[in-house]
Amino acid sequence: MTLFYLLLPVYVAFCLWLGVRILRKAGFDGWWVMVLLVPIVNVVMIWIFAFTRWPTLPANIKQDL
User: Fold this and answer.
1) Residue 30 near residue 23, CB atoms below 8 Å
2) More confident residue, 63 or 54
3) Are 28 and 53 in contact (CB under 8 A)?
4) Contact criterion met (CB below 8 Å) for 39 and 45
């Protein structure tokens, strides 16, 4: 059980780091990754992120499904 509590912060930090990289490539501020730590809000924000226009995509690419 001690190993779990030692590795949990490493896992969380790694997931947040990956989220920051994804957000920056999409053209958003990396601080939005902190929303992932808030229950319920994190699920809503993932959906909003998925369906908003990403600033780094060219204007001629259609993003609708």
Assistant:
1) yes
2) 54
3) no
4) no
Residue with tokens 């780091």: 17
| Non-local CB neighbours of 54 within 8 Å, separated by 6+ positions | 26, 27, 28, 63
Conformation bin of residue 38: beta by default, left when phi > 0, alpha when psi is -120 to 50:
beta
Rounded to whole angstroms, how far apart are CA atoms 21 and 52? 18
Query: How do residues 5-16 score in pLDDT, each as one tens digit?
Result: 999 999 999 999
Of 23, 19, 8, the C-alpha closest to 55 is: 23
Whether residue 11 contacts residue 19, with contact meaning beta carbons closer than 8 Å, is answered with no
